[in-house]
Amino acid sequence: MIYLDSAATSYYRPREVAQAVYDAILTMGNAGRGSHASSLNSARMIYETRCLLNELFHGPGPEQVVFTSNATEALNIAIQGLTAPGVRMAATAMDHNSVLRPVYRAKERGCSLQILDVDEKGRLSLEKLEELFQNGVDIFACTHASNVTGNLNPLTEIGKLCKKYGVLFLVDASQTAGVFPIDMERDFIDILCFTGHKGLMGPQGTGGMIVQKSVVQSFLKTQPKEMPTVLEAGTLNGHGIAGLHAALNYILNVGTEQIKRIECQRMRQFYEGIKHLDAVKIYGDFSNMERAPIVALNIGNYDSSAVSDELSEVYGIQTRPGAHCAPLMHRALHTEEQGIVRFSFSHFLSEEQVEEAVQAIKEMTAGEEI
Q: Residue 178: which of 96, 95, 262, 270 has the closest Cα?
């Protein structure tokens, strides 16, 4: 089996992650629910994980790191906590439903909402973004990279525009956290939402957000007493956070630049191997290889699910077909009916495995029945 669906969840993980979860299940108490050794050890590990996340993303401090079950929960908490009637919001056609659905609900509650469109290759325009800001925006939410095409948004340039126009900047880093360097200070990010089970290579059911200190007052009607517990209710997923702790240590040791370099090499190898095939249509902008390690394609007029099923059943290659919970992007790419087959790459993949995927596409476009 060759797993090419890392944009959905990590399958290849450091061995230390599984060991950490195993050890935590056997030894960990409930952090903050006792003063005995197992409880205190759990609390220390969770605090260390906050420190590692703050270090990785250059955040405002470990106490500003909030744990949630995933990026979807983090984005919902942030958007619902920040919006009230009269607030002017903006998002993009690149965004996942984790952003789009809560901003639509915010509009129903009396917020104004503008959606910044994309071009035929699924790219945002900074010029149009600045025009939008000039017309008045309070909160701008956007993804760092499209989960459909892999197109990367320039966080630093967007952050500078947000700073210039006094716009709160909310970033969905689901596709890039752990792979691409993100610096909340440099990029003027006010809230960074992330999931633990993709590029961070932690267990499923982990994620969170990092919130600048100036933003926290917006979440509650009353003055918050302390972060992060003011935004964390009940028992945390300590066993999952233990795995995330191990994964973060791995990432900080190897370095995001090394991880990104290998993943982008694997992506480029696959892209170069299939781009000349007449029956293959590739989506997204490949003029710049500084992009998330994703190749999105279709073969002729075949339904994307049929292509993905053939890849799995005949070649043992696992991909993600369909709409990818990003309806506006598919509307822009005119793939609402057909969907798209998404290949996404891990730095644990070998060149030989990628070449097998290239050969599978060549065989499938050479007339073999799908």
A: 262
